[in-house]
Write a structure and sequence with these properties.
Distance between the termini: 32 Å
Number of helices: 8
Oligomer: single chain
Structural class: alpha/beta
Length: 198
């Protein structure tokens, strides 16, 4: 499934400074029955967002209208736990295009890259600076430049570089998933096939 190209994202951010956020909190297991990617955003952090009677919990960050944006800034070890793809689907479906953390669980990180969510790993020191800046001013913006592989806190100019697999970077810049990548090479594959003697 193709998604929007990711080049440079400038946005306010939602702070979630909780360490060891696992995939069962990102999207609880009881919501994994669907096989399409739509609708999971409604249940992102479901047990943290809502009471048992489905009323919003006022003290949870996603229910605070002061904070918004396409960037989620999480605590260390974001996306640990089970390997469910649905966690990345929920993040994307909610509207986040980038998750920032000082450490990601590998499987969650790769699941994000497969569907158009950019996981940006930064130093713990920069993470602290970003949280402090957002709490001081919820209108604080971050700029994430995928081509340059940089993330900048615009209020201070502090910038760090981040790593990303070259293949996944190319796919995100073009808005491709793995199947789109192969389909884009269809003519080359056909030419190669025709040149084979068998």
């Amino acid at each position: 499934m193709a998604y929007d190209k990711f080049t440079t994202l400038t946005s306010t951010a939602v702070p979630l400074p909780i360490e060891n956020v696992d995939t069962d909190q990102i999207i609880p297991a009881r919501f994994l029955k669907a096989t399409t990617r739509d609708g999971f955003g409604d249940n992102l952090f479901r047990d943290w967002r809502y009471n048992s009677d489905n009323t919003p919990k006022e003290d949870f960050i996603l229910n605070n209208p002061i904070y918004s944006g396409k960037i989620l800034v999480g605590g260390m070890n974001f996306g640990s736990g089970s390997s469910r793809e649905h966690a990345a689907w929920a993040v994307y479906d909610y509207g986040f295009r980038c998750v920032v953390s000082s450490f990601f669980a590998d499987i969650f990180k790769n699941n994000c890259l497969n569907i158009g969510v950019l996981p940006v790993q930064i130093s713990p020191e920069f993470s602290t600076e970003i949280f402090e800046a957002i709490y001081a001013d919820p209108n604080t913006e971050l700029e994430v430049n995928l081509e340059a592989q940089t993330i900048t806190l615009l209020s201070s100019g502090t910038q760090e570089s981040f790593d990303i697999n070259g293949y996944k970077k190319g796919n995100m810049l073009n808005g491709f998933d793995d199947i789109d990548y192969l389909q884009n090479m269809k003519s080359e594959i056909e030419t190669f096939t025709e040149s084979r003697p068998f």
